């Protein structure tokens, strides 16, 4: 059973919170060093000492608060900004010349950390609010606006709003990416289920319809009901599973689907229904030849290398299922005398399986028409499987000259050495 895909969410904010924590500590140390080296200019150094001691304790104690968005509450942000504003307004009380001589305030660049916390937490609007209060406090502390003060105010205001805007964009991008990954995972899971339905239920319903119609009587009515259910199920499977881009690509490719068709008995019945799946029981690499050998019949020629073709069990099983889907097209669409050939090639960097037939080929545009009708054997059972393996499925059909399907699986994806 295929493993369900998990969507791993990544946080673009967490590195910002870690950077903010480091900035606050370094800014606190810087403010203490500024005071230590310029202590002589303070008329009341004890005011600065009391504030800086409190600032150091607050910074270290509140480090967990700036570790992530959940811990950084509004109450903490308000208290943190209040401390920064208080330090700015206390500067003239410790340094009488602070109003007349341009210089740093008591918290210095630590104030920027408080504003950045607003920006990371709430975006550019919160950053604009906090930086505006800091600007007002700086203007009050100076008493009159100077060129340096205005320069610092504008710098903090613009940079904090810019960072807040970037954070908002990053959050939106993260949500979009997470949603896209969820949609992709859900789509791939639906495609996998659709492949399983196509390879089992739809095949059985189609066979019941044909056999019932041929037998007549009550069996014919059973066949008619099976046909109705097949149409309904195909419509359900095809809804939303085949992107428009894929249909257009297939239409542009022209005739790229084989036109097989013969009775089931000539080709050994419905493919893929063996009594035992060796790949499921294999603990290590699986020999692809053991999965493809049962497909060899009087009308299907199987050519293989002399040495084992080892693939990871899941990859081998999916590749064999894609071959089975290709051969099912033989039983459905080619003439009664059509033959098919399976060729396995074990290259250094990839494993290639080619399925070729001598049927009548397919008219141009038939693939797109088939997908529109909900017949997704090529789109899901063949191409979808190879795409999930990281490989490719190339289909080439020339009207009157048969069809060739080339399945390629990269060695890194498909083999364990």
TrEMBL record:
**A GO term from the CC aspect:** membrane
Recorded superkingdom: Bacteria
Q: Which InterPro entries match?
A: DUF5931, HATPase_C_sf, HATPase_dom, Sensor_HK_TwoCompSys, Sig_transdc_His_kin_sub3_dim/P
Identify the keywords attached in UniProt to this record, alphabetized. Kinase, Membrane, Transferase, Transmembrane, Transmembrane helix, Two-component regulatory system
Q: Which residues form the Histidine kinase/HSP90-like ATPase domain?
A: 314-413
Has the keyword Transferase been applied to this entry?
A: yes
Q: Which residues cross the membrane?
A: 21-39, 45-64, 76-94, 114-137, 149-167
Single GO molecular function: phosphorelay sensor kinase activity
Decide whether keyword Electron transport is in the record: no
Name this protein carries in UniProt: Sensor histidine kinase
Question: Which species is this UniProt entry from?
Answer: Streptomyces corynorhini
């Amino acid at each position: 059973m295929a493993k369900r895909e998990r969507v791993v969410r990544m946080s673009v904010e967490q590195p910002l919170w870690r950077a903010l924590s480091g900035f606050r500590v370094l800014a606190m140390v810087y403010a203490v060093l500024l005071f230590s080296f310029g202590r002589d200019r303070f008329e009341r150094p004890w005011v600065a000492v009391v504030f800086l001691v409190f600032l150091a304790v607050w910074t270290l104690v509140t480090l967990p608060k700036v570790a992530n968005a959940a811990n950084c509450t509004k109450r903490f942000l308000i208290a943190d900004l209040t401390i920064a504003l208080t330090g700015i307004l206390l500067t003239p009380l410790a340094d009488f010349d602070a109003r007349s001589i341009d210089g740093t305030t008591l918290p210095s660049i630590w104030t920027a950390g408080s504003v950045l916390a607003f920006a990371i937490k709430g975006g550019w609007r919160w950053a604009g609010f906090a930086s505006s209060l800091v600007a007002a406090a700086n203007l009050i502390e100076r008493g009159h606006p100077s060129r340096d003060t205005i320069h610092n105010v504008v710098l903090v205001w613009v940079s904090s709003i810019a960072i807040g805007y970037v954070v908002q964009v990053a959050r939106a991008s993260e949500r979009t990416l997470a949603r896209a990954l969820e949609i992709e995972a859900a789509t791939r899971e639906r495609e996998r289920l659709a492949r399983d339905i196509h390879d089992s239920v739809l095949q059985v319903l189609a066979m019941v319809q044909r056999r019932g119609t041929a037998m007549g009587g009550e069996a014919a009515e059973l066949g008619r009901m099976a046909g109705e259910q097949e149409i309904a199920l195909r419509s359900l499977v095809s809804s939303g599973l085949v992107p428009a881009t894929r249909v257009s690509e297939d239409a542009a490719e022209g005739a790229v689907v084989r036109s097989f068709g013969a009775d089931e008995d000539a080709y050994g019945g419905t493919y893929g229904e063996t009594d035992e799946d060796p790949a499921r029981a294999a603990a290590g690499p699986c020999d692809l030849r053991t999965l493809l050998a049962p497909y060899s019949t009087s009308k299907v020629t199987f050519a293989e290398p002399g040495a084992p073709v080892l693939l990871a069990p899941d990859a081998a099983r999916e590749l064999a299922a894609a071959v089975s889907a290709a051969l099912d097209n033989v039983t459905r669409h080619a003439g009664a005398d059509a033959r098919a050939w399976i060729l396995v090639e074990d290259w250094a960097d990839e494993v290639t399986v080619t399925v070729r037939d001598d049927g009548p080929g397919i008219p141009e545009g038939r693939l797109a028409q088939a997908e529109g009708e909900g017949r997704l054997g090529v789109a899901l059972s063949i191409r979808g499987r190879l795409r999930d393996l990281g490989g490719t499925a190339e289909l080439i059909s020339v009207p009157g000259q048969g069809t060739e399907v080339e399945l390629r699986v990269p060695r890194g994806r498909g083999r364990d050495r």
